[in-house]
Amino acid sequence: MLSSVRRFFKFIHWLYLQYLLNTALYMLEPWERVLFTTLLFAIISTAVYSALVFLPVHVRSMIQTYS
Amino acid sequence: MIDTNVLTVSENMKIDKNNYKYNTTNILNHEDDLQCEEFEETPLYAAVLTYIGYAILCLFGWLRDFMRQSNIEKKRGAIDPNASLDFVPLYQSYESFYTRNMYTRVRDIFNRPITSVPGPQFELAERVSDDYNWTYRFTGKTISAINLGSYNYLGFAERTGSCATDAIDAIKSYGIATCSTNSEIGTQFYHVELEQLLAKFLGVESCIAFGMGFATNALNLPVLASKGDLILSDELNHCSLILGIRLSGACYQTYAHNDINDLEKKLRVAIVQGHPRTNRPWKKIIIVVEGVYSMEGSICRLPQLIELKKKYKAYLYMDEAHSIGAMGKSGRGIVDYFNLNTDDVDILMGTFTKSFGSAGGYIAGKKSLIDHIRVNSHANTYASSMSAPIVQQIISSLHVLNCPEGKNRISQLADNTRYFRQKLMNMGFIVYGNKNSPVVPMLLYLPARVTRFNREMLRRGIAVVTVGFPATKLLESRVRFCISAAHTRQMLDTTLAAIDEVGTELSLRYSTRYQHRRLKDI
């Protein structure tokens, strides 16, 4: 039970390392990593929020126009 | 165009994981594939990720430069003192941008000081940085590591043994400095002995030795070529050859790496058209190649080059810096590796730094050539002659190479090379070059993976040399392993296990031609 929790945390740590390596954040200082991650999170969350709010309305109006 | 009735060329079409046909040309000579080399293409996702990584580094570089410019942050690097006055800028702007913002961030993986003899295992001085690699502080401790970065191909970098005792005796008999140049009063009898011994070892008429390998290329190409000549050099030639070619004043063209057809085309055009504006014929044409290219691990195509040079009456200059001692059945270099005649290569050049465990370079060839170089070369008339222990080390190592112990070293190196390369390729890593070359470049592509690989290997007690831009192309950052005859099978196994572990953690198995396997499954 404890070993599988530990393995899960190790897996999360490995995923974080892959994120750092593939975006070259591994070479930057900690405050630069925080800055980049904040910007990336802000952009992605804005996109997701807009999709969640506007997509049903747009899809409904498209169906109404073409049917 | 070239006669291929002596050699048979067979092209095998193989198909990799993505159903992409790739071509491995096996040029068979005496039923033995001496020229079998592979250079796998960069996978698309690796190229994209590398560009993304460099783009992000560039963005943060601009941000930091802006902060330094507007005095939010202190300027730590080299500053042009006269930037405001109308002087020509001291630093080229892109080079210093790269140095400040990308190289300095990971500078701790380069230029590590060592504190012992660079044998198969050595001691590194431990250093830490408190301000992200702008300054270092030595803790006083040393790290013991397996050495895969030194050019110690035959294992002559050792503190004990016959070579070391002979060198110490030479210091006791002759001192260290000769205090003169070769042309004045600095030629000692051991210099003459070295040159005669080396000429006999290589199978040439005569030979001349210089104190520095880089200077041998840079200062002797101007002796051999001058204005009115044409030099055709491989595109991946070493900096010393390029410097020598430029200093000579001859016209030069580069041809694609190891591409004999491209070289032949350029030769034909050069002979027919002559000088660019006057169309006068060239006084002579020299082809400059290296025996083993140290960043690619590839071997020059000597049989085809010799055929080409005989057909078009050009001269061949071969730089055997990494291949002398390391290649061939008796360690006599690429000429021995292909079983050819040394008279066919006009100018053989090599260094003592790599396989002989010493320092310096030599040029070998016909006696008339060497006499001409002896009189006209700046490296002979102005440079101080080689020091006694250095020469004695080379003489002792040449004596060792003629004994059975030397033959053991050569075969041990060949064995280690083939074993290491085969295992790496079977695990699914991309390794460039000929399967017999002791230089093993493994591709890593992303800059962050390169630094992580280097640091993780050092944490596991293995010191490797990783190279990135500008020594290699931007996309193709690599780690270069230099196999030595002094490495035991156990050291290679430890290394392979570490590479396997780190390679799995960082997803470094890029190959589509070989299956990805863990070490325990091979």
Automatic annotation (TrEMBL), chain A:
Q: Which GO terms describe its biological process?
A: ceramide biosynthetic process
Identify a single GO molecular function assigned to this protein: serine C-palmitoyltransferase activity
Extract the Pfam families matched here: SPT_ssu-like
Q: In which pathway does it act?
A: Lipid metabolism
Q: Provide this UniProt record's keywords sorted from A to Z.
A: Endoplasmic reticulum, Lipid metabolism, Membrane, Sphingolipid metabolism, Transmembrane, Transmembrane helix
Q: Where are the transmembrane segments?
A: 12-28, 34-57
Gene Ontology, cellular component aspect = endoplasmic reticulum membrane; serine palmitoyltransferase complex
**Where in or outside the cell is it found?**
Endoplasmic reticulum membrane
Q: How does it sit in the membrane?
A: Multi-pass membrane protein
Q: Which domain of life is it from?
A: Eukaryota
Listed PANTHER family: SERINE PALMITOYLTRANSFERASE SMALL SUBUNIT A
Family as reported in the entry's similarity comment? Belongs to the SPTSS family. SPTSSA subfamily.
Give the protein's recorded name: Serine palmitoyltransferase small subunit B
Q: Which organism is it from?
A: Rotaria sordida
UniProtKB/TrEMBL annotation, chain B:
An annotated GO cellular component of this protein is:
membrane
Q: Where exactly are the transmembrane stretches of this chain? A: 44-63
Keyword Transmembrane helix in the entry? The reply is yes
Swiss-Prot/TrEMBL cofactor(s): pyridoxal 5'-phosphate
Q: In the Enzyme Commission scheme, what number(s) does this protein have? A: 2.3.1.50
Question: What residue stretches are annotated with the Aminotransferase class I/classII large domain?
Answer: 146-499
Question: Which keywords belong to this entry?
Answer: Acyltransferase, Membrane, Pyridoxal phosphate, Transferase, Transmembrane, Transmembrane helix
Annotated InterPro entries: Aminotrans_II_pyridoxalP_BS, Aminotransferase_I/II_large, AON_synthase_class-II, PyrdxlP-dep_Trfase, PyrdxlP-dep_Trfase_major, PyrdxlP-dep_Trfase_small
Q: Entry's Pfam families? A: Aminotran_1_2
* One GO term of the biological process aspect: sphingosine biosynthetic process
List the catalytic activities from the record.
L-serine + hexadecanoyl-CoA + H(+) = 3-oxosphinganine + CO2 + CoA
Which CDD domains does this UniProt record tie to the protein? KBL_like
Q: Which GO terms describe its molecular function?
A: pyridoxal phosphate binding; serine C-palmitoyltransferase activity
EC class, as a word, reads transferase
| Transferase listed as a keyword | yes
Report the sequence similarity comment from the record: Belongs to the class-II pyridoxal-phosphate-dependent aminotransferase family.
Name of protein = serine C-palmitoyltransferase
> What is the organism of origin for this protein?
Rotaria sordida
